[in-house]
Amino acid sequence: MINVYNYVLDGLSDWEFGYVTAELHSRRYFKKQSSNVSVKTVGPTMESITTMGGLTVTPDITDDEIISEPSAVLLLPGADTWDDQKHTPIIEKAMELLECGATVAAICGATTTLAEVGVLDARIHTSNSLEFLKMVCPNYKGEQYYKNVKAIADGGLITGSSAGGLLFARIVLEKLGVFSEDTLEAWYNYFNTGDAKYFYTLMQTLEN
After folding, report:
1. DSSP code of 146?
2. What Pfam families does this protein map onto (predicted)?
3. pLDDT tens digit at each of 208 positions of the chain
4. CB proximity list for 151: less than 8 A, separation 6 or greater
5. Which are the contacts of 123, defined by CB distance < 8 A and separation ≥ 6?
6. Are residue 56 and residue 124 in the same domain, yes or no?
7. Residues 150, 192: one domain?
8. Is 147 helix (H, G, I), strand (E, B) or coil?
């Protein structure tokens, strides 16, 4: 069983997680005999949050219920409310997960919290821009590891920009190994280009 923890907080940027959460929940393109995946929403409390798109989400569990194990995946979304101190425990948990060999995937504003506590100082990463990180994170010292791409992985750390939701999802799905290589390639190409030929290819990969 792979436990995927999807952290939710007020102002969460809905679109940044749409691709990856939809595929993990629906399992519609999972390969045969894929690992079982459990996806739970996590909050600092059990209080409901409101996303940027106005959706109400009630967490399944609180951050202290996350199990630190190498197979775990923690998803940290973008939001403009990360500076609230109630989110400190999830950042500490993210560091604990990275230490034990688990995967932490942060996008947009979530990268700033990791930058501020030094997680990005010695790991390849990206964000909305290098200037953005330097402006909002006084303690950030990872400039030499910054890559100007939409999303990227360095071991267990996956980072993405606000415009990188699709590539971010591809990297997370590849890390989890729930799609076959052919399915993942066709899936990404279809949503990246909109060309119907890739959708037909995607369907054909599911017949194997």
Report:
1. B
2. DJ-1_PfpI
3. 999 999 999 999 999 999 999 999 999 999 988 889 999 999 999 999 999 999 999 999 999 999 999 999 999 999 999 999 999 999 999 999 999 999 999 999 999 999 999 999 999 999 999 999 999 999 999 999 999 999 999 999 999 999 999 999 999 999 999 999 999 999 999 999 999 999 999 999 997 6
4. 107, 126, 158, 159, 160, 161, 164, 167, 168, 170, 171
5. 142, 145, 154, 155, 157
6. yes
7. no
8. coil
Strands 37-43 and 49-50: unpaired
Distances (CA, A) of 60 to 42, 46, 70, 112, 179: 6, 7, 21, 25, 25
Structure token pair of residue 56: 């109400």
CATH of residue 90's domain is 3.40.50.880
**C-alpha–C-alpha distance, residues 77 and 63, integer Å:** 15
Distances (CA, A) of 198 to 81, 120, 188, 190: 38, 35, 9, 5
pTM value > 0.85: yes
How far, rounded to the nearest angstrom, does the alpha carbon of residue 79 sit from its chain's CA centroid? 13
Catalytic sites, residue numbers: 108
